[in-house]
Amino acid sequence: MKKLVSTAFASFALLCLSTAALAAQPIKIGALFAVTGPASFLGEPERNTAQMVVDEINKAGGVKGRKLELITYDTGGDATKAVQLANKLVKNDQVVAIIGPSTTGDSMAIIPVVEKAQIPLISCAAGSKITEPVKKWVFKTAQNDGLAVAKIYEQLKKEKKTRVAILTVSDGFGSSGREQLKAQAAHYGIQILSDDTYGPKDTDMTAQLAKIRGSQAQALICWGTNPGPAVIARNAKQLGLSIPVYMSHGVSSKKFIELAGDAAEGIRLPSGKVLVADLLPKNDKQRASLLAFIKDYQNHFKAEGDHFGGHAWDAVMLLKGAIERGGDTPAGIRNALEATRNFPGIGGVFSYSAKDHAGLTKDAFTLVEVRKKDWVLVK
Questions:
Q1: What's the CA gap between 252 and 254, in Å, rounded?
Q2: Can you tell me which residues the record assigns to a coiled coil (predicted)?
Q3: Residue 313 to residues 14, 50, 186, 273, 339: CA-CA distances in angstroms?
């Protein structure tokens, strides 16, 4: 009998130790960012921010006593590579959720992977089609390009400008923006006089801009991510294009001003509030989070926290909240994400639902303008 009791006790003790060891295992989160390549101005601050936030969560005790383990891979902005790495995160690393990728093209490419594997994805890219129509396992933190278009068109309507030219990059982000620019034009009384595109690797857009200069357009709207828009800004200045130039939120960081130089002066674009956090009223719901993020990033990386790093900050913090409320299983995280309401992040105040996995309204954007190599609010 004593031997049986002793054996039972030993088995129970071993079970307790095994359970404790299992409970102490870190929660694995995957991350896909374009740290190198043309979209590195997106992916590098996203990678930096995600790791910074995870480290701080772990330092504070983790989530429900368990640490987060961030497994990050560099897509290089290559959709084929993004799919390979997404499969690696799911099959080899066995992550419970994925944040990123940085670009719309990469995000669209991996959606079939996460949907099949039933792993929640929080994309850091802007294309509306990432979450429209709603996919069960896919969410996003970057503000929709549809909301950005509305912000620009509202300003043009306010200024009684009704004739525009659009110049969009021929990639996933550009095509999604172009669709929104065309779809919303009639609603705002906007007539598109010129609709042209450029390639992601093009280094001169004077031909397209010369056509626009010869039109009756009252404003130019360029849709793309660096370096193309900076080239367009410089080419427009060289040609003496006198109409106002609007860019997309795809260039809302100091990197655009650096690349465009003096040609950036006067250019307007819709952006998350992080670029002008210090100019916001004290009762703004996001202000505290924005200022804390900017200070934190500056302390860690000796650089300004920007719009793009903010997408990763939101993704990690939204996951943290979902794990706290829904547990550490993919299904529990997905359900808790969908139930998220009024989360004040960097990109805006998020409220997801079964019908909305983007979670933001156009209030997430503010219109900014480049003045003396810095951002100012457009009144």
A1: 7
A2: none
A3: 40, 6, 36, 14, 19
What is the tens place of the pLDDT at every residue in 262-311?
A: 999 999 999 999 989 988 888 988 998 999 999 999 999 998 888 899 99
Cis bond before residue 133 (omega within 30° of 0): yes
Phi, psi of 48 (to 5 degrees): -60, -45
Point out which residues pair with 126 in neighbouring strands: none
What is the chain's alpha carbon radius of gyration, rounded to the nearest angstrom?
23
Instruction: Give the span between the Cα atoms of 67 and 64, in whole angstroms.
Output: 8
Residues in the chain: 379
- What is the tens place of the pLDDT at every residue in 303-337? 888 889 999 999 999 999 999 999 999 999 999 99
What SS3 class is residue 366? Answer: strand
List C-alpha distances in Å: 356 to 73, 130, 208, 346: 28, 11, 37, 19
Question: Do the beta carbons of residue 326 and residue 333 sit within 8 Å?
Answer: yes
**Cβ distance 318 to 141 under 8 Å?**
yes
CB 178 within 8 A of CB 196: no
The dihedral formed by the CA atoms of 226, 232, 233 and 237, expressed in degrees to the nearest 10: 160
Residue 112 in contact with residue 90, Cβ under 8 Å?
no
Query: Quick one: which H or E segment has residue 169?
Result: strand 163-169
Cα–Cα distance, 101 to 90 (Å, whole number): 14
